[in-house]
Amino acid sequence: MNEQSRDFSRRRISAVVPAAGRGSRLGADVPKVFVPILPEVTIWDAVHARLAEVADRIVLVLSPDGRSYVEKNRATFPANCFDKTELALQPVPLGMGDAIFGASEFWREYDDVLVVWGDQFNLSQRTLKACVRLHSEQHGPTLTLPVVRAPKPYVEYVFDSAGRLTGLRQSREGDVCEPGGFSDIGVFLLTGGEVLGEAWRLYRAGSTLGSVTGEINFLPFLVHLSSTVGWPVVRYETDNPDEAVGINTPEDLAFARNLLQKNPLPNSKSL
Q1: For 143-202, how does the pLDDT look when each residue is reduced to its tens digit (9 = 90+)?
Q2: How far apart are CA 207 and CA 47, in angstroms?
Q3: First CA to last CA across the chain, in angstroms?
Q4: What does the alpha-carbon distance between residue 224 and residue 203 come to, in Å, rounded to a whole number?
Q5: 3-state secondary structure the chain
Q6: Every domain of the chain and the residues it spans
Q7: Residue 89 and residue 61: Cα distance in Å, rounded?
Q8: CA angle (90, 121, 192) in 5-degree steps
Q9: Which of 194, 192, 171 is nearest to 183 (CA)?
Q10: Does the pLDDT value for residue 1 go beyond 70?
Q11: Which is nearest to 157 in space by CA: 143, 170, 174?
Q12: What is the sign, positive or negative, of the torsion defined by CA atoms of 15, 167, 216, 177?
């Protein structure tokens, strides 16, 4: 298939971007996803530019403050920065799982769901398109998971010799991750529709909240899909650790600024 082709063979994709956080740790008084990286480029501009090339719909999940911010300032945003985008609401910050599946009305009619964390500004089109192509070649419910070897994983995925996802370690929940283990890049591609919604409902019936955060976590659900439900996992390994960098600290923001100055967004006129 032509690398430049948008036709990823018949399947319709809804991207879902949980983005209910605030930018306070970055020294900003706006929702985190709208924090500027460069004067005229926000985190959202970067994420949207990557997703618009591979997704038929983009669902941006915001807090009440975040949605109010958009409604009040929409006229000041670039004209195309909400192309294909629907705004969903997470009334209470109960975790990523709650954000994703609380917005299911927006994605349940789509074949596949592409979950992307709201601060993953440096995703490559090569990785996204490769994952979409690999996913489209599978038959039956599937999880496609881009990973990267990380010197100090914040989240570590454990696979068995058959390629099943059998374990997960999360630093934020008090787990110790192994140096050099597989980490994610904030991207998760799953077969969508009712099959995904039903799998989540069954999982939630027997799952517990995060032991430290008390949140409804999404990542343990992936282990459940593979090890308990039996979904095959297509693992795509990228060799670029910069793709895994989210923006959580002023240092991350400076790093992002440097990268975007060197590699402007597609069709960007502001860089």
Answers
A1: 999 999 999 888 999 999 999 999 999 988 889 999 999 999 999 999 999 999 999 999
A2: 31
A3: 31
A4: 7
A5: CCCCCCCCCCCCEEEEEECCCECHHHCCCCEHHHCEEECCEEHHHHHHHHHCCCCCEEEEEECHHHHHHHHHHHHHCCCCCCCCEEEEECCCCCCHHHHHHHCHHHHCCCCEEEEECCCCCCCCHHHHHHHHHHHHCCCCCCEEEEEEECCCCCEEEEECCCCCEEEEEEHHHCCCCCCCCEEECCEEEEECHHHHHHHHHHHHHHCCCCCCCCCCCCHHHHHHHHHHHCCCEEEEECCCHHHHCCCCCHHHHHHHHHHHHHCCCCCCCCC
A6: 13-262
A7: 5
A8: 50
A9: 171
A10: no
A11: 170
A12: negative
* Cβ count near 68 (within 10 Å): 12
How many angstroms separate the CA atoms of 141 and 190, rounded? 8
Across 20-24, 45-49, 53-57, 122-126, least confident range:
20-24
Calculate what percentage of the chain has a pLDDT beyond 90.
Answer: 70
What pLDDT is recorded for position 202? 94
- Six-digit token pair at 146? 């881009």
Distance of CA 211 to the CA centre of its chain: 22
pTM score, whole prediction? 0.91
254 phi, psi to nearest 5 deg: -65, -40
13-262: CATH number = 3.90.550.10
The CA angle 55-21-45, to the nearest 5 degrees, is 40
Distances in Å between the Cα of 140 and the Cα atoms of 4, 203, 212, 223 are 26, 19, 35, 17
- Degrees (nearest 5) of the Cα angle 205, 147, 209? 25
- Number of Cβ within a 10 Å radius of residue 112: 24
Token readout for 70 is: 């958009």
